[in-house]
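Bench notes, bay 3.
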Amino acid sequence: MTSVEVDSATFRDLTLIASAAGITRGEAVALLVERFHEASAAPEQLPPARPTIPVHAIYHGRRVEGEFDSATASLTVTSDPLAGKWFQTPSGAAKAVVAAIKPGVTPNRSGYDFWFVTSTGKTLASVRRPT
C-alpha cells in the first residue's frame, strides 16, 4: 500500500467526504479520482447561442448598431456611443442613445419603433413577441 501526504485541512475535508459517503478515506480518494476522470472524459457542451437579431437606429444623423435578444427582449448596443452596454429593454437602450447623442432632449422613446431590424429595414416591432 502506498501513502499520500496531505495538509490538515485537506485531511479534514477528506474525512468529511468519507464520513458522508459511508466509506473509508482511501475509498473517498479513489472516488474523487474516478469522478475527475469522468469529468475530464465528458465532452464539453457549450450553452446554445442566444437568438440575437442585428438592429440599428439612426438618430440625429448617427447610425447606432445593436443586437436584440429575442429570448429576453433585451438589447445590447454594439457601436458608439454606448458600445457594449446592455439594456433590459429596447426602450431603455433607445433612451440612453438619445441622451448620449443629444443631451438635454427628452429621451423618452418607444424602443420597438426606434430600432430597426437591419436585415429587413422594418421596425423592431415587426419581430416583437406578443405579451
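Next record in the batch:
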Amino acid sequence: MQKIPLNLAAPEMILARDVFRSESPAGIPVCGKGTVLNENLIYRLKQMSIQSIYVEGHPVTFEGEASLEEQLQDLEKRFSKTLDNRRNLLLLDIYRQQIRCAMGEQGE
C-alpha cells in the first residue's frame, strides 16, 4: 500500500483504503477500498479537493526513494553481525516480508 498525491493517480490503480472528504474518517466514504480508478473518478476526487489517496502496491517511485533491492540490501547489512542469533533471523524475515509488502510484492 502506498499513499500518493491525487495528481499522481492513474487509471487502473486500486484504492487500498476508503476515501473520505476530509482527513477524518468520521463520515461516509466517497469511494471504497478496492475501487479501480478511472479518469472520471480521478477527476471527481480532484473536484472534491481530495489531496491524497492510498493505492495497492507501490506504483509510484519518488525521487530519492530507495528501490526494493536497495532496501533489502540495507536490511541485510543492518542484521549482518547478528545472523547467528535465531530470533534475529526471525526478525529479519519479518522485516523482509514487510518491505516486500510495502513495495507491492507478495511475501515469500
